[in-house]
Amino acid sequence: MKKINSLYVIDDDRIYHFLLKNLFKQNGITVKTNFFSNGQEAIEALKQDEAGDNAPDLILLDINMPIMNGWQFLEEYAKLQDRIPKTSMVYMISSSNDVVDINKAKGYKSLVKDYFLKPICKEDLDKIFISGN
Amino acid sequence: MPHNQEAESANAFYKKLIDEVPDLIFKAEYTNGKYSVVFCSESVRDIYEVTPEEFIADPDYIITHRILPLDRAMFAKKLEVSRIRLKRYDHEYRVKLPQKGLRWLRITGKPEQIETGGVAFYTRVSDITDLKLQEQKLQVSEERYKFALEAASEGLWDWDITKRTVYFSGQAMKIIGRENKDATVPQSFWSSRVHPDDVKARDEAKRKGLRRGSSYESIYRIRTDEGKYRWLLSRGRAVEFDKNGKATRAIGMHKDITQLKEKEIQLGNTITIIGNQNTRLSNFAHIVSHNLRSHASNLKMLLDLFKNADNEEREEMLSHLEGISDGLTITISHLKELVEIQTEVKTVKEHLNLRHYLKNILTILHHEITKHSVTIEINIPLDVTVNYNAAYLESILLNFTTNAIKYSSSERKPVISYDFEIEDGKKVLFISDNGLGIDLRKHKNSLFGMYKTFHKNQNSRGIGLFITKNQIEAMGGKVEVTSEVNKGTIFKIYFNEED
C-alpha cells in the first residue's frame, strides 16, 4: 500500500474546503492539501509542475463548478497523463445523486477510482485513505 | 334480251354484294300516310330475325314485336322528323330478338322526295351491341375512377415533358382554388406556385423518380389563387421514354394533405413544448438535487465536526453556519422564482412599448453604466410594442444588460447595442456586446443551465440566464446565442407573442 502524502481538493464550495480541513484534523489525517475552486486552476498547477515532484497522490474532484467542471477536468487531465510521471488516484465527491452523473463516472474507469456522495464522513475517508490503492 | 340480261346480272351482282354485308340494307317508301318496304337485304334475318318476305309484307311488325317498348316512341319520332324535314337520320335503339335476345342497333339513312309526293328512305341498320357494351364498360370504369379520385380529393396530372405542358383534372385545379374543370397548361403554371423552400426537394424527387423503373413522390406546398399555401402529396411515374431513355411523359396524382400536415406540425410543436418542459423539469430536479443537497450536506458535516471541536474552532464553525444559512435562503428564493414561472404560464400579458421599457431598465442601471463608461446604442423604432408580461420583460432586459456589463472586457470601451428586427414575421430583439465572449464549443449546452458560469468573476452565478430563459419560453418565445471569445456576445430574443 502506497502512503498518501499529498492531495488536491477541486471544489468551488469554500465552506466545504473548511469542513474538509477540519474533518482531516479530527481524524488525525496529516496530508499536504492544495485547494482549488475549479478544474482550470488545478490543471494549471499540474502543468507548472513539469518534473512531477509535487503531483498529488490523490485528487478529490467535484462535478459542478464554474469555468471548468469535473468532467472537463478529467478530459484535460487525461491529455496530461503522458507528460506527468506520476498518476494520481481520482475520487469524485459530489452532491449530485443523479444516475447520469454516477454512470458517467463509471465511464472513466481508468481514471476515477470511486464516486462518493456528499456529505463525506469518517468512514468514507477510511475507504479513501486506508483501503485505497 | 342482252340489255335486260345485262341489267339483270348487274342487279344480281349488287344483290349478292349487299347480301354479303352484315348490316341490313333496305329501301322504304312513305306514301299516303303509310310506310312500305320496297327492298331489303338478306341480313334482315340476322338483324331482326325475320325473313325478307315477312319484313316486306309487314314492316310495322318490327316496331311492335322487336323494338323495346321503351324505345318505340323515340324511334317513331326520329323517323317522322327525318321524313318531314328530309334530313339524314342516325339513331340508336334496342330490340329484343327471339334468338339473340337484347341487341343494340343503329339506324342511319337518307330520306328523298319521290315523284309521287312521298318520301323514300335508303337505310342501313347495324348491330352495335358489342360497341355499346365496350362503351358502357369504359363509362363505368371512367366514372368509378372519377368518383374514387373525387372521394379521395385526388387530382390527376398528365405531364407532356417534351411539350412542357401538363393536363390537370378538375379536382387538381380545385386544390389551387380554381373551378372543378380540367385544363392543359404550361408546366410553369404549376411550378411557379411551388413554395420557394420546397422547390429544391421537389426537383430532386423528380430527377430521381422519373427514371425508368422508379416512381416519383414528393410532398410540397402549392400556392392557391388566394395566395395561401396548401400541402400536396404528388405521386406518379414516367410512362413514355425517348430513345435515350429520357422520360417524355409522366402521369400521376395530387392529394391535398393540408389537414394531415397541419396536424403533424401541431403534434411536432407539442412535442417540442413537452420536450422543453421536460428539460426545465430535469433542470429543476437538478437544482433540487444539487444545490439543496450541497447545503444540506455541508450542514451535516458541520454539525458532526462541531461535536468534537474545541471552543475556538466552534466559533469559526458558527460563522460558516451563517454562510450555509445564507446560501440556503438564496437557493430557496431562486427555486420559488422558478416554480412561479412554471406554474403561471397564463401570466397576464399587455402591449408594452419595448423602447420605453428598455429606457426604464437603463435608468435603473444608470450607476453601473456610468461606472463602466458603457456606450449604449438603441435601434428600436419608437412605436414597437410586444404583447408580454411586464415583470418578465423587465427581468429579461435587466438580466441581459447586467450580464453584458458584468462580462465586459477591460481591454476596450464597452458597447451594448439593442437592435429590433422582424424575422419571418416574428419580433426579435438583438442584444450585442463587445465583451469577453463565451466559448460556445465548450459551454453551449450548459449556457442556460443551472449554476453554470464561464468567467472567473466573483458572484457570477448562472442562475440569472436560467431564469431568463425560462421566462422567455414561458411567453412562447426562445433565445439564441452567438459568441466569440474576446470579441463579444449576441443574444437573440424571439418574442413570439400570440396576438
Terminal Cα separation of chain A, in Å?
6 Å
Q: Radius of gyration of chain A, rounded? A: 14 Å
How many beta-strand segments of chain A?
Answer: 5
Q: What do the pLDDT scores of chain A average to?
A: 85
Mean pLDDT of chain B: 86
Provide a descriptive summary of the structure in words:
The complex is a heterodimer of chains A (133) and B (499). The model of chain A has no long low-confidence stretch (mean pLDDT 85). Chain A has helices spanning 14-26, 39-48, 70-80, 99-107, 122-131, and strands at residues 6-10, 32-36, 58-61, 89-94, 112-117. In chain A, helix 2 runs parallel beside helix 3. Chain A has a five-stranded parallel beta sheet. With 133 residues, chain A is of the alpha/beta class. Chain B has 16 helices and 18 strands. In chain B, the strands form four sheets. Chain B has a six-stranded antiparallel beta sheet with strand order 8-7-6-11-10-9, sandwiched between helices. In chain B, strands 2-1-5-4-3 form a five-stranded antiparallel beta sheet, with helices on both faces. Classes of the chains: A alpha/beta (133), B alpha+beta (499). At the A-B interface, helix 1 of A face helix 10 and helix 11 of B.
SSE topology:
The complex is a heterodimer of chains A (133) and B (499).
Chain A: E1 6-10, H1 14-26, E2 32-36, H2 39-48, E3 58-61, H3 70-80, E4 89-94, H4 99-107, E5 112-117, H5 122-131
Helix pairs in contact in A: 2-3
Chain B: H1 2-20, E1 24-31, E2 34-40, H2 44-47, H3 52-57, H4 60-65, H5 69-85, E3 89-97, E4 101-113, E5 119-127, H6 129-151, E6 154-160, E7 165-168, H7 170-175, E8 183-186, H8 187-191, H9 199-209, E9 216-223, E10 229-241, E11 247-256, H10 258-308, H11 311-343, E12 350-353, H12 354-364, H13 366-371, E13 375-379, E14 385-388, H14 390-406, E15 415-423, E16 426-433, H15 440-443, H16 463-474, E17 478-484, E18 488-494
Parallel strand pairs in B: 13-15
Antiparallel strand pairs in B: 1-2, 1-5, 3-4, 4-5, 6-7, 6-11, 7-8, 9-10, 10-11, 12-14, 15-16, 16-18, 17-18
Helix pairs in contact in B: 10-11, 11-16, 12-14, 14-16
